[in-house]
Amino acid sequence: MIKATMVLEGGATRGVFTSGVLDYLMEQGLYTSHVIGVSAGACNGADYVSRQIGRTRDCTIHKEKEYNYYYGFRKFIREKSLMNMDMIFDRYPNEFFPFDYDTYFGSEMECEIVTTNCETGQAEYMTERHDRERLMKVCRASCSMPLVSPIVNVDGVPYLDGGLADSIPVSRAIGIGNKKIIVILTRNPGYRKKPTSQAAANLYRRAYKKYPELVRVTIRRNYEYNRQIRLVEQLQREGKIFVFSPRIPTVSRTEKDYDSLMHFYEHGYQQAKRRHRELQEYLEGSFMGL
To answer: What's the pTM?
Structure first.
């Protein structure tokens, strides 16, 4: 195990790029001492800690209808959710694609899952070392996108998608103190998040009027995201962090097409394979940056 921190951005199905990178690194036996996962990155992070090569890929990319977790429009209206979260965080880990809880809980790796506290609007970096149900509930909270997923209560506190408050937790990683930080992004280099439209802001205000701090952080998300990505770019230029990011057009966060998703996954896998020596040089201290 390498004393380093792995930072995993979210992005729903764009997370298959991350899956490809991590699957190759796991095949090479490269594991870091700390992992911080946001939204889809939390699921990738959990499977990295449980050392389950291919699990996140298989959960996300499949043709069998029985594994489909997207609701149609009518069910979306009734369930108030775009995705069947019970399928993803109950039947998947406990039935269809068994999650190795024993390896996860027995690991020496520290895994933080980023959530957004609806009451405070602040990011929280949650862990779970013993309770299977609570672990999946925390992952579910981290992945629950606003407007299209219900709020998740953990220990009596309401949470939503961790990416609302901390999309790319590089500052959190720096605070941990490891000198080496690996960041896996799911957006192309140079991407900037556009300001929230007035229409979307009004939707947030109506949907979450009980949580003004959540509304505030959600509407201002683009400012914080763009600040974080500028920090990532600066640290990358200085050779202080190592960054993986897609070099081909990204899939949408709700992409369903099997071939498109597999292509994006393979892009991540091949990039990790191509840059493996470069990553080793960074971890050994001889990396000079870009």
So the answer is: 0.94
Helices (H) then strands (E): counts for the chain: 13, 8
10 Cβ partners below 8 Å, 6+ apart?
37, 38, 39, 40, 41, 42, 142, 143, 161, 162, 163, 167, 186
Angle made by CA atoms 226, 228, 230, in degrees to the nearest 5: 70
Handedness of CA 84, 86, 89, 95 (dihedral sign): negative
pLDDT in tens, 187-237: 999 999 999 999 999 999 999 999 999 999 999 999 999 999 999 999 999
Beta bridge partner(s), residue 143: none
Residue 276 to residues 116, 139, 268, Cα–Cα distance (Å): 33, 29, 12
User: Residue 208: which of 90, 142, 116 has the closest Cα?
Assistant: 116
252 close to 11: Cβ distance less than 8 angstroms: no
Q: Can you tell me the distance from the alpha carbon of 100 to that of 94, in angstroms, rounded to the nearest whole number? A: 9
The CA distances from residue 87 to 60, 84, 92, 176, 215, in Å, are 12, 5, 6, 34, 28
pLDDT at 103 over 80: yes
